[in-house]
Amino acid sequence: MLPLKLAISICCHFKEERLQYLEKMSSQFAKLASEVLVIIVSNTNKPEELSQFDAVLRHKGFEYRFFTPDTLGHPLLLTWAHFPVFKELLADESVSHFMYLEDDTLITPVNMSYWMEAREDLRPYGLIPSFLRVENKAHDSTWYSSDCPHPFFVYGLPRVKVSHRLGFINFPELYQGMYLLDRELMIEHLHGQSYNPNFGRWGIQEKAAQGVTFLNVPKGFTTRNVIPYDLISYQIDERCFIHHLPNNYAQPMDGHKIIKTMPVQKLLSPWPNKVFLRPKNLKKFFKAIIK
């Protein structure tokens, strides 16, 4: 099952070397819904630079537009410029789903089908299906997490069971670099506190990608977003993997700081680990149990 009409807004600071990521991303767009509209929110209105965006997007089976905000104030605020775009599109009732993306994340039809199915599974709990950014290294078939540097103790995190084998677990403040919302959730987003740049816990640039992550969070959970996993093998469901195309966390470029990354297959553990056993984390765990 795929959306009827998907609006995708992509934040694109124009850099010629990053067009390779947009090329890979856009190769999947037409397959993500019955109808797709793409809006490139860019910091440029130079014809020669817009023509390079156009060359990447044309003849791929979806409609696309360009939007350059008039008054940005600061380059980092470009991530927030998609809000008026989505607010205007919300008036078009044919648009069923809204996706905000950074310009380097690959979304596939498998990701979309997973989200659509999981959205219904999680609706009774007030939770939202989430994605896990992953990367790979040269000559290595292992997927690495872009945002989780250590394993999690399964039974130390909030979670729900939706079937015999499938559960959803609540990672602490998981960053996705994107959001996907249906019409109901988008109305909640644009008419709630999450529309305000002062809302949330991340930096101003990252907050634009939080969607309703921190809005109306169910009791006992740290966010609305949860990740699917197998209740027996403790492996994360690969349908939620989205590829962070630069792979710059798993394989930093020369001269860049090495960042610790974790193989995805080791992210969940049925046994307490050193991170969980830290006094402050144990205190949080027992406090939650008492509540």
Overview of this structure, please?
There is one protein chain. The chain is of the alpha/beta class and 291 residues long. The protein folds into two domains: 1-103, Alpha-Beta Complex (Spore Coat Polysaccharide Biosynthesis Protein SpsA, Chain A), CATH 3.90.550.10; 104-173 and 213-291, no CATH class. It contains seven helices and 16 strands. The chain has helices spanning 19-29, 47-57, 82-89, 109-122, 183-190, 204-207, 279-290, and strands at residues 5-12, 35-42, 63-67, 97-102, 105-106, 128-129, 132-137, 140-145, 152-153, 159-161, 166-169, 178-182, 225-230, 241-244, 262-263, 268-269. The strands form four sheets. A five-stranded mixed β-sheet has the order 3-2-1-4-12, with helices on both faces. The chain has a five-stranded mixed β-sheet with strand order 5-14-7-8-15. The protein has a four-stranded mixed β-sheet with strand order 6-13-11-10. Strand 1 (5-12), helix 1 and strand 2 form a beta-alpha-beta unit. Helix 1 crosses helix 2 (47-57).
